[in-house]
Amino acid sequence: MFLDDFSSLSPDCYLPGDPSYSEITGALDFPSNNTADPLSETSSILARPLSQEALYTTIIHGPFTGSLRNTLEEQLQCIDAYALRVTALIDSIERGNEGERNIRFQQTRQFLEPAGYFSAGLLAAGYDPHEKISVTFNTYVGKWTPEVKTNTDTRTYFAWEIAAGALKHDRTSEGGLVNFRTTHIEPQDRSRISDLEALGARLQGHWEAEVAKPMSDESGPLAERSGKADVYVLRGTLQSLLNDKTGFEKLSVETQEAIHRTLYWNGQVIIPNLYGYPLAGYAFIPDLPFDGNVEHRPNKGLMIDLKSGKASEISGDRGFSEWAKENRHSIVSRFNASDRQGGKDAHWPKAGEVLDHYIAGNLATYPGRQNIVKDKAVPVWETFNYTKSRGSDYFLKHGSLSSGIAAAYQGLNANNAVWNDQTQVFGASQQRWKAIKEVWGSTFGYAPVVGNLGQIVFGVHDSIYGMTANDRVAGNAAAAISALQLAHELSPVGPEAQEPPLIPFNASANDRYQWHPAAQPNEVELTRISNAPATMPSTPAPTFAGMREVEFRGKKYFVADKPDVADGEHYKLRVPDAQDPSKLAYSGIAAKPDEAGVWTRMGVPGGGLKEYFSRKYRQARETLDAVAQQHADMALPVKEHEVEQFTKTLVTLMGESNAGEFEWIETYTHADSDFVNGPLRAGKTTPELEAFLGEFNQLNPYEGKAYRSAFVTDEGAKRLKDGVGKVFQDPGVQSASATVRNSAEWEGWAKGAAKQRTHATQQVVYVFDESVPKMNMSTDFLKDHVAIGAGKVLQVLAFKEQGQKLFVYLASPSKIPKHVYNLFDGKIIY
User: Fold this and answer.
1) How do the domains of the chain map onto residue ranges?
2) What angle in degrees, to the nearest 10, is found between the helix axes of 98-109 and 477-490?
3) Residue-wise over 22-59: b if at least 16 C-beta within 10 A, else e?
4) Does domain 620-822 have CATH number 3.90.176?
5) How close are the terminal C-alpha atoms of the chain, in Å?
6) The organism sits in which domain of life (predicted)?
7) Which band of pLDDT confidence, cut at 50, 70 and 90, is reported for residue 671?
C-alpha cells in the first residue's frame, strides 16, 4: 500500500486509554469522525518539538482513537498506517536548521534499522514484539520414512524476529529419501505464528521500498544526513565533555588536549576498526593523529560510542582488549553484517572471531601485508586501528569534524544498511541468516512493552548496559547530545540556561545531563539528572557582595555594578546557583537598562542571544578584532611570520590561477571595473559585460577568506550595524584581496571609486568568510586579486567600529530570508 492508497485505511489504529496521548497532542483538535487525513495530522504533530516517548507513541499508534485491533485485516491496516507515519517521519527530517535536522534524524534513526522498524510495526498492530515463542527442529534418518531421531534443536524467537522472517527462513523442508527434517510448533502457537508471518510479510514490503532502499543509497539524502548526524553527535559529545568540568577533569591531559585540538584546530577523527573492519557508530579521537605512515598505528585516545553516550580512554592495545571485553555485544552489533559472516579466505575471517581472539589475549595471528606481494603473520593485538589493509573499504578512515569524516560515515552507514537488509530481513529471496543473537540489538535503546489495552510503557531497562532506567539516557543519547550541541550553538550557558532555546527534543522540562563515571575505569557516560521543581524560599532573598538586584520580565536577577559583557554596555543577569545557593550562576541573559530604567535584552531586534553567542558569530567577531588590529598596525614593520604567510598565499594564488588566459579579465584588472559594475548595478547589460561574465564563470575558484575596502552611504552603514543576522547583496562584482595588508593598501583605489558614487562617505572593510564563493583573478599585474560574483547574497555575522572604519564580517547564509538589503545604501532589494 502506498500514499495514494491511504484513503482505504481505517483510522482506528490507536488503542484508547493511553493517558500520555493527550499530553502529546496538546491543543491539537482531531476530528472524531474517520474522514481526517492521518498522514497530514501526523505531519502536523511532527512539526512540533516532541519528547522521545511522545515521538514513539505518535509514530507507533498515530493520532487516532477507535476500536481495538481484533481481526487480522484491522491489524494489517494498522501496519499500513504505521508505515506511512514512518514515511512522514522520514520526510520531516530535513526541516529547520542544520542542528534541528540532525536531531530529527537521530530520533528517526531507530525506525531505520530492522529491529526498531519491525518491533514498532508489531506494536502498532497490538502485539508485544518481545513475546517469546519456541519452535523445535528434529532430524531423522531412515529409508523412505523417518525412523531414528538423530538430533533435536529448540530455538526461541522474539515475535518481531518471526515478523522479520527468521522462522520462515529456518523452517525445514518436509520429506526426503534418507535424511529427514521436521519443524514442530506447539498447537497453541500455530495461529500466533501464522498471524505474525502475515503481518511480517506486509512490513517487509514496506521496509524494502520505503526504508531500506533510500537508506542504502550512498549518494542519497538519508545516507548523507546519517553521516552529518554522526559528526554532529560527535561534536556535541566533545563540546559537552569540555563544558562539563567534572567529567572533563576525569580525562587524562592527553585526551583533554585531543578534545581541544579536534574541536578548535580541525584535529583528526578516526572511524575505529579491527583488522580493517570498521565499527559503525563509534569515533576515535587519537592522542597522536595518524600521519599516513602505516607503521604509526594510532592506538591511544578517546573512544566514543555515538549511540549510547559513552566515552572511554583507550591506553593502547591492551587497553582496547579490556574495553572490548566490557563492550563485546555492542561492538559485534556495529560490524558490517558481511564482515560478521566473513568466510571468503584467510584474509576475511569472521569479525566476531577476531574480536574474541583479541579479548582472549595476544595469542592469535592473522595474515597481514608485509609488502605489495607478500604477507606476514600479524599478532591480533596489532589489528586495532589496522593501517595495512589491501582493500580500500578497509583502509583506516580519518578526517576532521569539518572535512572528510562525515563522508566516511555516510559511506559506512549506507553500506551497513545494504547488508542489514540482506541478512536481517527475509522476503521472497530468503537470504542466509547467521549469528542471529548478535545481529539483533535492543529496540529503541529501551524496550517498549505492551500493557493493558495496548498502552506502551517506555523506560523498561535493557540489561545489556547496566544502570537504571531513571538515570540512563540510553537510546535517547544521540538525540540528547545533538540537542545539547544545538543549545550550545544558540547559547553558551549549557545546563544553567534559565530560558533554553526551543529545540526538537524535550525529554522533560526538568531534565538535565552530566557526564558521570561509568562502571569501568577511564570511562564516562552521559546521564540524566532529574531536578526537583523550584520552590520559593521562606527566608529573605540572599544578598551578594558587589551585586545588585534588578527585575527583568517579571523575574528577579542580580547584576554587577558595571557592565560585564564584552561589548562594554550590557550586564550578565545572574541567579542563585541551583547546586550552591550561596553562589551565583549566569542565567544566559544579557541586558541593559534604558533611560527609564527598563531592562532590555541584548540581541537583534526581537531579542535573543543567538547572534551574539553562537560559535560562528563569536568567531566572526574574533576575526574582525584581528583584522582591525592589523589595519591599526600598518605603520609597523612587517613581522617574519606575516611575510611567510603572505608569500605562501600569493604563490598558491598564482599557481592555481587561470585568469591570465582571458582578455576581458585582463581588461577589468588593468583598466577599471566600471564597464562591468556600471551596467550590473543599473540592471542593464552590454556586449562587453556579457563577454566578461562568460570569462568570469570560467575562472578557477579561490577558497579562503578575502578582504575588501569600500565606501557606503551613511544609511548603508547604519543598516549594516543594525543588520547582524540579516542578508545583503551587491549587484556588482566585488574585487577583494586574499591578504589583509594588501586590502588596506587598496584604500586609495576605494576612495577614488567612492567619489563616483554619490554620498558614499563611510569607509568599510569587508571580511568575506570561506563560505562565500570567490573566483581567483590573480595575474602578474595584481597577484592577490580575488573577486565575489555579481549578486551573491551575504549575511552579516559581526561588525566593529575602529577609528573612522567600519569592519563587517560576511558569510553565505544558510537560507534566503524574506528581505534582502543593498550592501551600498541599505535599501530593501526584495
Assistant:
1) 221-237+268-423, 547-613, 620-822
2) 170
3) eebbeeeeeeeeeeeebbebbeebbeeebbbbbbbbbb
4) yes
5) 45
6) Bacteria
7) low
